[in-house]
Design brief:
The protein contains 35 helices and eight strands. It is mainly alpha-helical. Strands 5-4-3-6 form a four-stranded mixed β-sheet. A hairpin with a 7-residue loop joins strand 4 and strand 5. Helix 17 runs antiparallel to helix 18 and helix 29 packs antiparallel against helix 31. The longest helix is centred in the middle third of the chain and has 29 residues.
Amino acid sequence: MVPLRDRGVLARLSLCLLAIVILSFVVRAWKTPFAWRYGDRPAHGILATVDFQRINSRETERRREQTAERVPLHFRREPLPTDTLTDELRADFLAIAESMSLDDVPDDVRTAFALPATVKGGGAGVSGAATPTEKYEILYRLVRAEDQTTDGVAEQARIERVAGLLAEFDQLLRVLNRPGIIEPETVTRRQLGPGQRLAIENDQSEPAMIAGIGDVDLATMMKPGGRIAATWESIPLLATIRPSMESWLSARVQPTLTYDRARTLEALREARDNVEVVYEKWYQGQVLVGPGELLGEVELELLWEEYAEAEVQVPFYLRLIRTGTVVLMMIVLAVINAAYLVRNEPRLVNSYSRLSVYLGAMILAVGVGCWSTGSPVLRAEVVPAVVMAMIFAVAYNQIMGALTAMTISLLLTLATSGELTEFVVLISVSATAVIMLSSVPSRSTLIKVGFVTGIAFFIVDCGMGVLNSQSLDIIWSDGRLLTEAGKGAAWCLGAGFLVAGSLPFVERVFGVVTDISLLEMSDISHTLLQELVRRAPGTYNHSISVATIAETAAEAIGANGLLVRVGAYFHDIGKMLKPEYFVENMTEGMTSRHADLAPAMSTLIIIGHVKDGVDLALEHHLPQPIIDFIEQHHGTTLVQYFYHEAKKQAEGNSDHRTDAEESSFRYPGPKPQTREAGVMMLSDAVESASRTLSEPTPRRIETLVHKITMDKLLDGQFEESPLTLGEIHTIEESLTQSLIAIYHGRIKYPEQRSA
């Protein structure tokens, strides 16, 4: 029975319940999942389950476009510079009036009125000279008022004539000033046709004036029937020289209208927004998607509208029932996972940090999977399932990876499509990844796993498509099926690359060490190992021997032999700080440093190598599993030699009785927490003890190993490890065989016998 009064148990249960609550929000337990995906082909079609209406996007957009086409372009009008134009025309007229002959008219004036050039110094009728055109003569005589005099043009008459022309020009300017003049390049660039309307604004406080292109284009206005055609009738003098004046206006008058892009866009937006939305109604039982019809973006949009309306109509009590059902299913999954973890992964359950990481990883995987299903392009829900299956298989074991994959696959299926097909695909590819991860000797292994998993996805996804359609023809007739299967296979391969690239991060977060890191650490060129060789060669040789026999024993019971071997290399690194206090580092003729020390002080030094080793390991950033070997390889065993010495000194001496308390002569622990740590404890003990045998015969080795094993067992050193009695017996046999092989007898050669 679970001790519910234990605060630690209650805290862990609360953490799990919190994770379930968070997962309930992640999977939206109160909502029915939207089951359809981009590219699906419903075999029996889809009928509407409720009456609903949706916006007819195409018709609404068509009406908005029609309205937008009728919106006039907005222009800003600047006043026409009438005074400047009047002064320019006066100056040009005076230049003509004051000319003594046609050739004396300035070139810029002739250009403005589009008059032909003449030859300097030549007069009318002179051979080779250009004869003035009739248009030139009319303009020249009109401005000089030659029609009013017979004996030459009088000065006063010319002045009055120019004044009259300018008075008529003022009427023409008033016509041109409203609504304004547009730049010809703007008409060409914006392809403004005759029917295009313009909204001309002079001031924000005044309403815009609506005009057509013919009302503002100067060339159009001057054509017959144009806006200023009637004006020529009221200005008879200028009408006489109309062609010349039209040329002058084209040359001198500048556009006064400027296109207002911001105001035009605002008007377009307002016009589109004012168009009423067009709705189309659908009724319960109406066919939304026909049998076998491909679900594209349009079909999915329609199904989403129907789904949203159906969700709105779900009563509150039904949502509560669904939420409770989903939460209950999650609790069942949690109990299944907890039953396995409590029995097989007690370190994870007993550690708040490890348990939090485990639950957080589950929530993250489900959250990413739910997010990816929302995009018709991604559809990458297989990635978190495969990644987490691979990570937990590497970090813990294959069973843990399979259990995690099953849980995540169920939750993703529950939160997304709710279809059996989805679950079959997810669990199949996850299982494929887990099966191949019995060990990870290199990073390329993870990429190979991703590749094989991708092949499995492609086969299973296509197979489920064939089963759902009940036709083999769908494989080559429906290219989308192969495309989606290929996309999923690519995601699986990407998952392999993702795990391979993030492996160091995974090791740090989960507090584990992979075979790849173990192989790197097993290199004898490691800084700590080189320092151990230099300072404590005897301890180094002892560590190598322990690694050899411990690896074999670990593999005999199915434990991680590589982890045990690397752990053995580093388990005694703390001895390098005081190597002369340990017997394996003493050479012949050396006096023991403990001879002058009290047993209690000697015990502190001996026990201290564990703490020193942990400090060195932390300083050199060794992973936690290796540090665990350093802490646990002695457990809480008794330092028997110095304990017995202390008891001898305490006998008959009442002042030293407290110096022989057993608790003061035990290692601080903890006891071995894993099978590998238990193997290390026995291997370290029997290897050290075997060196004391004067004649290491097989029988003596067997007896020694059995005695040490029973002592550790009866001392309770394996109480916290998952080792069974059968496994302990297997370890004992393996260690015995390894030591016999090391100390096997050799034939003495003749020279050795004679000596």
